[in-house]
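Appendix B, example 12.
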Amino acid sequence: MAAHEQEFGVQAMCRMLGVSRSGYYAWRNRPESPRAQANHKLLVRIREEYQLSRKTYGSPRVHAALQRNGVTCSRKRVARLMRRTQIAARTAHRRIPRTTQRDPKAAPAPNLLNQEFSAPAPDRKWVGDLTYIDTAEGWLYLATILDLFSRRVVGWAMGEHMDAALVQQAWNMAVSQRCPSTDLLHHSDQGSQYTSDAYLQSLAVYHCQVSMSRVGHCYDNAAMESFFSTLKFECATDQFATRALARTTIFEYIEAWYNRQRLHSSLGYCSPVEFERNSRH
């Protein structure tokens, strides 16, 4: 009735619903209960954290963000308020080209990683892969290297062609920023980019152990698949108008948001940079 007062009038609605006007006004003028007031205040904070997350957080991460800022509440309460007000994480826009193309002449490396997606320290295990970004000008390809210790993106490159040069750019960025030691394991799929002589020679310079996923076993590189899924859900949800717009948006997402601010459930709801910083203390 309160929502339709101006449209139908109180007297008419009371008559249709069989309630008294005095009863309606008594209900309307009754102050909110302490619980309702607390929910209203909490919802304001929920909306703030949701906006700060670029509308990417669901209730678990919103709850974690609230706790980090000193707000005490249950996860179920946050989920209930978000459902009631239709606050939800973005969904992805999906089109899938083929990114793994094997060279039948290349000899793949064994799967040394063996789905062990943890590492005792930074720069001990890196995983690499390629994905696609949809733009109105055509595909833009993203090559990425992820550190399994902190889930930090340590190297990346974007280009119009998914060739060995693209993954080489991502590798060059990673080694120039991180200077890994000689006990680094590098894992990838068996795509021709990663089995090329030029790329394998680059790994040999750092005496890397080379590991590759088995054919048809997507879970062998599950950590990287998880990152790409996160990027598609949170950043590349729709087709970009241009490749240039996609480049700037993804650059900002990786360097400003994902590595430095986004709370990762696998890291105890820390960002990768924060997790690495805490590990040194």
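Residues 2-84 form one domain. The chain has a mean pLDDT of 89.
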